[in-house]
Fold this sequence. Notes:
InterPro entries: ComplexI_NDUFA9_subunit, DoxX-like, Epimerase_deHydtase, NAD(P)-bd_dom_sf. 53% of the residues lie in helices and 12% in strands.
Amino acid sequence: xxxxITGAAGFIGSAILAELLSQGHQVHACxxxxxxxxxxxxxxxxxxxxxxCLTLESWLSYLTHIDTVINCAGILTETQPGDFxxxxxxxxxxxxxxxxxQGIKCFIQxxxxxxxxxxxxxxxxxxxxxxxxxxxxxxxxxxxxVVLSCRGSYGGTxxxxxxxxxxxxxxxxxxxxxxxxxxxxxxxxxxxxxxxYQGDKRVFYPAGPEVLSIKEFLGNLRQWLKWPEPYWLPTPxxxxxxxxxxxxxxxxxxxxDTLLTMLEQGNIIPDNxxxxxxxxxxxxxxxxxxxxxxxxxxxxDRWHAxxxxxxxxxxxxxxxxxxxxxxxxxxxxxEQFAPTLNALAIPPAYQSTLVVLTSVLDLxxxxxxxxxxxPQLILGLMVxxxxxxxxxxxLFAPFTWLDPLGGLIKNVAILMMxxxxxxxxxxx
Length: 428
């Protein structure tokens, strides 16, 4: 079967892609970046941005000889207002319209479990679900609960691992909020089996066999990561709501008002759906709890869980250093910088200008880093600037190495900080 899949490089999409390829399907993967895709003779890659594919015409050229479309594209948080509408409704709506024009009758949609009143994320997903069920001959809507894998994580599941790494774990209220997690590998198998359901209009609710509280789930994760029992810290739900609202603006971690609302209301599939799905597909998803108990974790799993919190701390630290350095330069007086610049043989007439220029450089790099513009390039320029300062001062003003307050020697730590951030800067 020829299958087009959007979001093929994502957490869920990549697992579905691997499952389809293992079964011998010809897969056309639509992604923004192909780096995360495997090399496979049955795989062809289409690099595109869904935000640029909002019309029927933009999809037609990709649908030649396609039998089925699987839409796995999605985002948990918006970079700018309207992203949910564009990526969860407008782009897949245009794709679906193009499918109908090309005579493609089967469309599988990876949606989300929840209520449209929970927030814009769920609302935009379910808006497209409703369109498919009304207009498509064979519309298969998949609404899983929380998706987990022992082989890796992304987004909310990475956050869960990071929370489980804390010796003191804060809980929203008493941590009794419930959800019904499913293993990523089971979800991929279910999607592949649903390819045979052409001709039906159905909503499926894949989930594991047990309902877990958030406290149980975090405890199971911590046990899997081989850490002792933590201290549980019940926290007023009102405080969590304030933190979620603040994080929605800062976007430090994938946690916002919508996810908190979904957590409050519970993320459990409708009654009897687990048994019905297992019977129809002759396949029963595994227990997440038992899988975590029986599957070993490795040192990289523990590294990732702990380094998760270091990434935003390093981000703020780098910004603080560069902006404060710029401010210090703008405020410096000739009495402060003259001894060092004299040692570099900089003529006094040019010293103030040089200090201002280096301060402008620090300010520019700090602001571009905040904006996230080409982060790898900016990190490289930061490294070069630190090396430049260190080489020039260390060679021509060696007394700066022995500054009582640290002085030049601190540049070594800053270089290590930049190296560490470069190594862990990618969230996926």
